[in-house]
């Protein structure tokens, strides 16, 4: 459906990691006048290219991309900043007469942009350090049980192994005295954006797991370990830095620190990536507005092009 008067229509192409979103976006861009806004919490960082599967400079010169390489790896990024940045870029793209296409798998960012963002407190480094220390002693599943006592709704959405989200939910409750899930219900949407969400989902877990492993091996061949070594050698980053907590980076960092051998690190990367994909699929299943397409289905690119045209009110 085309956007109403005074509203901006944009498309979001999302789905679990390794489902081929970037390649599909480029295929659509070959047929339609669009510009891409990254919806990925790791692509914002400079010098994190291989492990994030970042589109090459050549591709970005051919098709404009935004919200890539906008931060140093020592900085932090948030859903609130994404909403401000993405809203600005989407409006600018629409003003140029192009189609704004959001591409990425960070569903927190999509929900924040489409459904609204609660007024949450800023991160507290002291609380985060203490929670990290507690998790090192007793494990994140134990802290997940604590979260379930304070905020059962949030605990029900968060995996017991998802340390970053457990930490944030406990941090918000400790600072405000209010459950994160309660605060999130007080959000307000970005009112002038009409977002059509298109989700690419795998036909089964086995096919996605195979793609994840093949993609990781390609990253290793391209120099992923060396990329993490360069970041580690800077001296101003550590394992708790938000950028270094990205899947793949934190496991390779632990290997370089001598915490585990290479085979263990490799297994942990693959397991963490599969867990990330599972969380992304769980999030998508609760999204009743998403239009779903199956990864690898015949003629997928052509079907997506037709769907984008339809979403903008043009004949397919």
Descriptive account of the structure:
The chain has a six-stranded parallel beta sheet with strand order 3-2-4-1-5-6, sandwiched between helices. It has 14 helices and six strands. Helix 3 crosses helix 4, helix 5 crosses helix 8 and helix 6 packs across helix 8. The mean pLDDT is 92. The protein is α/β, with parallel strands linked by helices. The radius of gyration is 20 Å and the shape is globular. The longest helix has 24 residues.
Briefly characterize the structure:
By secondary structure, this protein is α/β, with parallel strands linked by helices.
Secondary structure blueprint with pairings:
Elements: E1 8-14, H1 21-29, E2 34-38, H2 57-62, E3 65-66, H3 79-95, E4 99-103, H4 107-115, H5 125-138, H6 140-150, H7 152-157, H8 163-176, H9 180-184, E5 193-201, H10 205-222, H11 224-233, H12 249-256, H13 262-285, E6 291-294, H14 300-311
Parallel strand pairs: 1-4, 1-5, 2-3, 2-4, 5-6
Helix pairs in contact: 3-4, 5-6, 5-8, 6-8, 10-13, 11-12, 12-13
Would you tell me the structural class of the helices and strands?
alpha/beta
Could you describe the largest sheet, including whether it forms a barrel?
6 strands, parallel
- Mean pLDDT score, rounded? 92
Count of the domains: 2
């Amino acid at each position: 459906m085309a956007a109403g008067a005074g509203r901006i229509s944009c498309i979001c192409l999302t789905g679990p990691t390794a489902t081929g979103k970037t390649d599909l976006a480029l295929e659509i861009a070959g047929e339609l006048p669009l510009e891409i806004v990254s919806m990925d919490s790791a692509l914002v960082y400079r010098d994190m290219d291989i492990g994030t599967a970042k589109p090459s400079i050549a591709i970005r010169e051919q098709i404009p991309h935004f919200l890539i390489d906008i931060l140093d790896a020592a900085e932090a990024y948030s859903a609130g900043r994404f909403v401000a940045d993405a809203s600005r870029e989407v409006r600018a793209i629409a003003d140029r007469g192009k189609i704004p296409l959001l591409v990425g798998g960070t569903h927190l960012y999509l929900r924040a942009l489409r459904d609204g963002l609660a007024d949450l407190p800023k991160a507290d480094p002291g609380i985060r350090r203490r929670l990290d220390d507690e998790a090192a002693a007793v494990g994140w599943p134990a802290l997940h049980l604590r979260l379930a006592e304070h905020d059962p709704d949030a605990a029900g959405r968060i995996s017991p192994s998802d340390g970053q989200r457990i930490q944030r939910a406990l941090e918000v409750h400790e600072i405000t005295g209010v459950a994160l899930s309660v605060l999130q219900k007080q959000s307000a949407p970005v009112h002038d954006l009409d977002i059509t969400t298109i989700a690419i989902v795998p036909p089964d877990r086995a096919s996605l797991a195979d793609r994840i492993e093949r993609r990781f091996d390609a990253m290793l061949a391209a120099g992923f370990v060396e990329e993490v070594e360069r970041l580690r050698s800077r001296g101003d980053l550590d394992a708790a830095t938000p950028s270094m907590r990205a899947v793949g980076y934190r496991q390779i960092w632990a290997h370089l620190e001598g915490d585990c051998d290479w085979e263990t690190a490799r297994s942990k990367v693959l397991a963490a990536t599969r867990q990330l994909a599972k969380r992304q699929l769980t999030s998508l299943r609760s999204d009743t507005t998403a239009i779903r397409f199956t990864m690898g289905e015949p003629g997928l690119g052509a079907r997506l092009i037709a769907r984008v045209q339809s979403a903008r009110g043009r004949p397919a």
